[in-house]
Amino acid sequence: MPILRSTEFHLEAAARLEAVSSRVPELSAFVGLDGFVDEILHVVDKRHDADRFDRVPTIAAYGQRLVAAAGRSTNVELVRAMTKLGGNGPIMANALASFGLRVSYLGALGFPALHPVFDEFSRRAEVASICDPGLTDALEFDDGKILVGKHYTLKDVNWANICTRYGKDRFALKFASADLVGFVNWTMLPFMSDIWASIQCELMPGLLGERRKLFVDLADPEKRLPSDIERALDLIARFQSRFDVILGLNEKEAYEIARVLGLDASPRDPEGLAALSLDIHSRVPVSTLVVHPVAYALASDGRSVDVVEGPVCKKPRITTGAGDHFNSGFCLGKLLGLSNADAVLCGVSTSGHYVRTAKSPTVPDLVALMRNWPRE
To answer: 319-351: per-residue pLDDT in tens?
Structure first.
């Protein structure tokens, strides 16, 4: 299947997005449930003086340095580039708010008071928290990132604390009314599956009205047991009875899910990954399955797959949060009724703008990027 990358496609999709963009302020999203304080760090290769240094450029180069220290020792210097709000949920919700959606967020942002890193976010969205955030050291390289997390506070993200510290009725109202419900970072929230089971038992039977969108991002489930992943996938599929469910995966996550499902998880080219996505989709019956490698992304409706090239950036200003920005852009497209291909283009354009500028785009930013597609 061909990869969509033509100027004609970009221009026509930009026109379609612009034509429906006036609806964005009418849309609402209810997202959760994680929260992190991210320190974006660079690893020093050679230091020239107190202010100037060369970065270790790639994960492979960093790995070689660590391996070379085996049996001996080594010193690694980390330089903080920025401290920012983190977690899949806050980053995705913040990006949705930048588009102009009415966003409500519930997560781990500080308790009883918000951590200061979330102050600006709280001015863009209706924000509530039930516990303290996790902490992430994000070591960034030209070819990816290594996220070193401290997750001990996230055990407090559970159904009991949601009901007592946020309110079950309040949660039920948001869950029953938002155009988009987003549950992200399953891997790092040890009680997320239990929360889903409680929601499905206690809240879903009473849902009325039209079907709405529900987005789920597992977030690198490699460290979780196969039985836990299988249970999560089953619970995700159960949401499909009342929602149009979107399951988002990056390339690594797609291969991990394939292994758990007993599918061939060997690395593949875009055509092969599209075929694998259909195989995964046949085993996880949701409305839409999305997979986003670095250079392109694809979406499956269970019958066919749309593959769209992204605006690859050789020297990104930031990579932590790029996947969450893709997810926000894709969900924006689906909420506006765009096709899977157009929604994927919204996704790669959102992440493309973010890694170039370190800022979440507006809808006009997306339209402008599509019309002036970057070549490197």
So the answer is: 888 999 999 999 999 999 999 999 999 999 999
The proportion of the chain whose per-residue pLDDT surpasses 90, expressed as a percent, equals 91
**Total-model pTM:** 0.90
Helices within 138-295 (DSSP H only): 159-161, 168-177, 192-202, 226-238, 251-260, 270-283
Does residue 150 lie in a domain region? yes
CA 376 to chain centre: 23
Average pLDDT, the chain: 95
CATH of the domain at 344: 3.40.1190.20
Range of the domain at 363: 3-42+83-371
pLDDT tens digits, one per residue of 141-153: 988 889 898 999 9
Is residue 175 domain-resident?
yes
Q: Of all helices (H) and strands (E), which one includes residue 98?
A: helix 88-99
Helix (H, G, I), strand (E, B) or coil at 300: strand
Tell whether 125 is covered by a domain.
Answer: yes
Tokens 């046949």 belong to which residue? 282
Q: Distances in Å between the alpha carbon of 336 and those of 48, 192, 305, 311?
A: 51, 28, 20, 22
Overall domain count for the chain: 1
